[in-house]
Batch of 2 targets.
Target 1
Amino acid sequence: MKNTSLIGKLISHREWLLAGIIALMLVGVGSTAPFFISPGNLAEVFDDTAILIMLACAQMLVILTRCIDLSVASNIAFTGMCVALINVAYPDTPALVTLIMSIGIGGVLGAFNGILVWLVGIPSIVVTLGTMSIYRGFVFLLSGGEWVNAHEMTPQFLALPRATFLDLTVLSWIAIAVTIIMLVFTRFTKTGLSIFAVGGNPKAAVYSGLNVGKYQFITFCISGAVAGMCGYLWVSRYAVAYVEVAVAFELQVVAACVIGGISIAGGIGTIWGAALGAIFLGLINNALPVIGISPFWQLAISGLVIVLAVIINSRSEKRGGRRILREAHR
Amino acid sequence: MNRPVLELRNISKTFPGVKALDGVELQLYPGQVTALIGENGAGKSTLVKVLTGIYAPDGGDILIDDKPVTMQAATDAKRHGISAIHQEAVMFDELTVTENIFINNQSRNMFGLLDWKLMRTRAKTLLEYLDVNIDPDLPLRELSVAHKHLVSFAAALSINSNIVIMDEPTASLSHHEIQELYRLVRRLRDEGKAILFISHKFDEIFEICDRYTVFRDGQFVGAGEISDVTQDDLVAMMVGRTVNQIYPKIETEIGDTVMSVNGLSHPTEFDDIDFNLRKGEILGFYGLVGAGRSEVMQALFGLTRTSSGSMNLNDKPFKPRNPGDAIDQGLVYVPEDRQHQGTILTLPIFQNITLPQLGGLSRSGFIDMAREYDVARKYATRLQLKAASLSENVENLSGGNQQKVVIGKWLATNPNVIIVDEPTKGIDIGSKAAVHKFMGELVAQGLSVIMVSSELPEIMGMADRVIVMHEGRIVARFDRDDMTAEAIVTAATGAS
Amino acid sequence: MTEEVLKHPMTKDLPDDLNNGLRRKLMRWETLLMFFVAIAFFTNTQISPYFLDPWSLSDATFNFTEKAIIALPMALLIIARDIDLSVASTIALASVAMGFANTMGAGPIELAVIGMAVGTIAGFINGWIITKFDIPAIVVTIGTMSLYRGIAYIVLGDDVYRSYPSDFAFFGQGYVWGVLSFEFVLFLVLAVGFGILLHKTTFGRRVYAIGNNPTAALFSGINVKRHRLFLFTLVGLFAGLAAVLLTSRIGSTRPSIATGWELEVITMVVLGGVNILGGAGSIFGVFIAVFLMGLVTFGMGLMNVPGIVMSIFTGLLLILVIGTPIIWRRIWAARKMHSNSRN
């Protein structure tokens, strides 16, 4: 973001470091299984990671304001089931309308979280832990526990994320677009700047006339809307909707943010970091089977990576604080 | 005389248990610097928060250019052309200088997006106007305290405000930096801005202010032209009595050395601290805010590790690894920040008083509630604590009574060295006198007191000896006979 | 000044209401809870004629006892301003460890010791990372939540550990006296123990002090880090104990065992009146809340409500229980402010 200062360098270093590790992983895996780094396979890996990238970018905004949204995976399942059922009931609905609807439904779920955090003042961890099981339960109420399978969905519904353009799927392009929009949003809008400010120093934010709760609400709405859109994309990409869709995926999302250097204490992070964190996890998930490790390792690895990343973050964030002795400055 | 650009009439603000502002008034004139004078707790900071829209007043009128206005949020203040430079820099460490300056006042380009290029140029211009060389792309955390202040100046100037409020802007600046600041204030004044300058340092009030307004205990006491008054007049208005009466120095028998500190050093906060403390003495530590005094005291209390040096307490080596060690060996620390470090506001009085010595009031881990209550009652009575009951939460007490709980809590451990850090900060005059009187009684009984204070009259009135710190080092020592206000202040500002 | 003196009684007349004000405040929530327990109890008798049968009542306790046993130390942890989201995963890890030890031929007592030891270690690791690196407990335990269950999956994958020794079944299925199960008696004893620990000992008082203001607690000579580390380890130990009881009761181990329990345990604790932000709460409140949750879920079970729908109830309960007092306090404060300004 800002490259002139030492800390600025360190932060951007962090992203280069992560990019370097990702490159090394590619070389490593590629040396044992060359097909893994073929353009076609890389495009597939990216397609597989696209949803995680979008969710991580949105989650980053929430974390910047010192909150957390654990309900995103349940939001995906709920919104995905909603649009799948709508598709079954009204097969003529155009895919684009479905996409917009999913953004709306997800946004409403996110706004509900946000209102509880902003106006009622419940800690976000409690709110989203609660809505995580509420939204998941609603999927059951909606579907009666039944699956919506591929043959019940219309071809248009299924086609949208899979269509390809310039060798990348539409899903991948959507992820790229979301990332760019988020970059612009965080860097070039007043709301984006204010989100950094309220998370970095809530007290100073009040003195500057920024309403901390309102910005937290906004980030929950964004997180919900992105999760809703991913709900449609998920159900359509995997061509099935059921209660357990994306169970525990929120952990991967939080992991991606933490790996990307987003400070859980708020106010520090970049979209690049979040996106690279997501790509890192996506690579691991896709590379494990290739190098002959059982997919059962995935959960433990993302857990371990979260723990290691927060430890590393906590060390690099240790604010130097005010130093009194002049010599110590040098 | 022109008309006031801002006028407050009959402004009141009440907090649970405290009437912070009680029908105060204030006028600010364009092209004039008005000093707002008052002791800690007089209501100055509350007034700043009312003027900047952070607190809504309970009653009264705010008039700008003779028109009544309402202040609901910080954005209202900005809209009415009021900007403020707060006492602690309330800014964003993680954002850059440019982002901080324009946090609430951005320029946009033709697409409605923030125009950082333009803002960066404007930031440069503002900083050049202020005659400082700060890179506008640096994150704020990289700057010194003085430079952060200047950035908040730039932020205040970026809004084209007619009214500038400065809340104790010189509190943590060096002598040279203060002179720079005065130059800026005069420049703003000459441009026709109305400036409210909050301070309790008389030299600077007489140096740069044109008018004064005095508050005492949340009430308006008087206002007028600086040229019409003397320092003694202002002091009399501030405290409502003469200075000597506040500090009832009891002459005590000063005994042998109780504690000695030799070459105590910390990697970043203080260096080579040497002093002795004798029985029955009050040793004052004076310095500017941020001179490292509290850091030294916290090291004595086992809260921070030191890199070198040694300590002796009661002729035994003293090496506290944590506060528990220090308490066990008879040294206690009454911290500066009463509400966060000193007491647990949401617990009852008696639990606060007994917390440091729970072990002694229990049998195999079980608390002896009756004994606990007896101890609490004894010290509450001794300190003349005013409360409905000992089971009342500390948060319901006034600032002065909260401070009595903190002191009582430490006395109850029967220490022989007690360190008090800014013991009377933000408490009313009545309680202040009680705390001072009590400190006198303590040393008379043979305790030794280290008193950290930034209030010169308090240091000069209470201490037997004074140690002055500057930038983490001891720069001067005075005995009671040879201390003068000028010498102490000169040493504290680092002037040689 | 003089006015203030008049308003307050002189110090020597300070009334001696040892703890009364505090206790009255605490009692209000618990009375309300007992009222709800009565309603739930009555409703259940209406749903099923067999509900009042002693054996049926005894059966009802099984579905909440293990969670309730974790809720006791969790209450202390939350009062001290921390939280542990990894307890359910700790159960999975401990259960897998027992299953593995069983294949190596460990006896019932050894199995129980191994389960509790693994839990203790898991809790200690949480506490060590949190206090050593000064990281918020929420993130660390989200990480270990994933890590501990992940290890369980690595070890077991799709498999199941079964065929525990028949003696091992006593912990989760045995009866001590008549219809009173071992599990339930253990819970009652532990509840009394935790009540004494929290409300009568110096340790309990220090837990409250840390939860109300960790900085002031540190400045008062309390070794805050050591207390926090101990509490995390304690929660781990009891998660291990719960794993022993649960594994013994259902007689098998899958890596997905106890999924989602962290939510139910935390809901029990806050339903019991423990402030999620720390500093306040009582073991008695948690004790009643445990029965309320148990009765409601049992009643829903009687009505054949599926588990996933019950989780809607749990989630709503969590939000309502925390949200209602906050809204209530705000209304109360607004009213107080209003009456103040009129004076």
Target 2
Amino acid sequence: MTQGPGASRPRPFPHKRVAEFLLRAEGLTKVYPDGTVALSGVDLTVRPGEVLGLLGENGAGKTTLTKILSGLLPPTAGRILTPRGPVRFHSPKDALRIGIGMVHQHFALVDTFTALENVALGLGRVNFSLLRKKLERLVAETGLRVPLDVPVENLAVGERQRVEILKVLARDVKLLILDEPTSVLTPVETAELFKFLRNLREQGKAVVFITHKLKEALAVTDRIVVLRRGKVAGEVSTKETTAKELARLMIGVEVEPGRRPVELSLEAEFSRAAAPGPKGEPILMVKDLQVRSDTGELAVRGLSFELYPGEILGIAGVEGNGQTELVEAICGLRRVEAGEVELLGRKVTGRPPTELYRLGLAHIPEDRWKYGLILSFTVTENSILGLQRERDFQAAGFLRARAIRGHAARLVREFGIQTAGLSAPAKSLSGGNQQKLIAGRELSKDPKVIIAAQPTRGLDIGAAQFIRELLFRLREEGRAILLVSADLDEVLALSDRVAFMYEGTFTGIVRPAELTAEAVGLLMGGVKAGKG
Amino acid sequence: MSWAYFWSLFSISLHAMVPITLTAVGEVIGESAGLFNIGLEGILLLSAFTGTLGARAGGPILGLLMGLVTGLGIGLVFGVICAYWKGSQMIAGVGINLFALGFVAFGLQVLGSPGFYTVPRDVQLAPIRTSVGSFSPLIPVALLLPFLIHWFLNHTGVGLRIKAVGENPEAADVAGIPVELTQLLSTAVGAALAGLAGAYMSVSWLGSVTKEISAGRGFIALATVVFSGLRPLLALAGGLIFGFFESLATWIQSLPGVKEAVPWQFISMIPYVATLLVVAGVIGRVRFPKALGVPYRRE
């Protein structure tokens, strides 16, 4: 299974015969200026007419590898071969010239430009009317329907992704690299994307599909290369492998059944130990809440719910349906247009965050770089952000350095935060450790209500599992948790009740066990549930 | 008020409009690509001086060209520092301004006239004479150029790429657009226009150089760019507003009794204060390129 360095591997594949390979990477190594070894000696072959899955945890080197293949980064060592010989990319332009195009996880779109203008970028001399015809033909061929004349910032995320794909296809690529393309899509959009990918394969093009989701890798690829810590951990044919084998390659150890990552429990296993159910008085009440987004539109439209002690209420839904605004309004970070928020029986609508936190509210923010941490501050400094006014940490306007360091050290110990030291800047931590730091800090407030927005986004399986178990533990302790996540599997697996959010309202609040896959799709797509 | 007097006020308006407009529309190009040049003031000053040298050596056209080339040269240096070396745009701009102050003061001394040098009449740019009066040939240029640049930025592929670089350099990079080169050329062209504006002041409009000739116009141009939200036609409007108030100040100064009552320095302030007020007051939700002022680095 494991791939030998650069050797040709005779192996039957149904769609080839055109050429032995489209692109081959040999011994790719990347060492970043700060000494991080992102890749060491990676070999990879891409053949025409195949969908190659590139699987790995966060930090396994997937993104670095694709950045090198698409010309965005130069490798420290190793070479890239095409059937015509070795090539050297100085910029993405060089890669595009030989037919390699990349669709990034974070879209490389100019927000203020229309789809047409975004596609026109980099095409050299552009004749807009000709380009429009070409695009309309491409849209018809591929089914990637998008409005061409609306600034992309007004498009839904799925549509933006299509623009991104069209941008690359318009340049007649032979190899399309997709970096975690499904992380922002609804199940329906994902299915459409997969259909489109199979379509591309039929046309003899190659696709490199990057993901950390086993289910997707198994669903759409022909062959899977697993990366672990910058090395190829294995290469398998999709038909001959199982989720278990992939997980083992990815993580390096056999995953115990008892501690299966939520990811693996996909086989509709929503039958977690029956939840105790709402008991006592609601601890957080939201009544007819209306909140505006940055652009002034109503993002939350008259939403009501109650959160009880000892439960996890999950909010599922495609991002951009008002979840962010809802969380910010509850946490006192955004103006409430109408309606009320009650915390522990007190009206707290529009009260400042400090007061809410004193009452017992903690917030694990969605954007941890923007709202969770000050990246250039040290671990110690970050450990008391928001707590700096506390007597424990401050006396007569001076910070009490020893007490603060003690506090930080305790968090590092209790939450297993891996850091070079208490004085290391927060940006030097990995995403998972940053999140642990935030979680630890917020929990040191001893909160009664925890608002966790996208708490595991971008974390590797280990760190994500840690956070999920933490949420469970907090629930057992009788705290109330509002979990907002775009990861459907996560919400379904963790929540006692799940609310589906669509265009600012809930289409329904249900118990996960009562859900079928079809119902989930309908609720996410805006169809109201029969009962609330 | 006689017709001739009215014309002279109108003429002052238009002449005062030129340097602001040229400098501002130039900066619109540079800022569209994401580089913010606060060294415009210095470029105006330097090129006013080098324009004079050029005119002395080979006539007014060479003078204007010298100004243009001076601006271009400074723009290239600024662009290399900021686009390629990722230097601080703020510091590089301040550097230009300080360099200009020292260099021009020194240069005027070398010319043998510390602080003030009159450009000989025969090498000044000849005005266009009409039946109502005469005006500088650069006035129609300054009136037309904003329209040209508006068209260039909004309706050509190159313009699209310039804006893409300023808005989202990573997207531009991925699309195969050379980010640094685009920034370098955009800011250099912008600076060249500021250079032309500087030479215009000495060789065409005022007919002299002082070490205060730029008189804050570079900064007013920057304010105008902010007010315009990077729309060249609004930058022209900003230039016209400044020109109008400059002639208004001239008119107020000429009123009987005013000179005795108010020191002239206060009246000279009018166009600056008025322009800043208008620019600050009108400003609404202007949207700037997201990457303006931020050096682009590939991860």
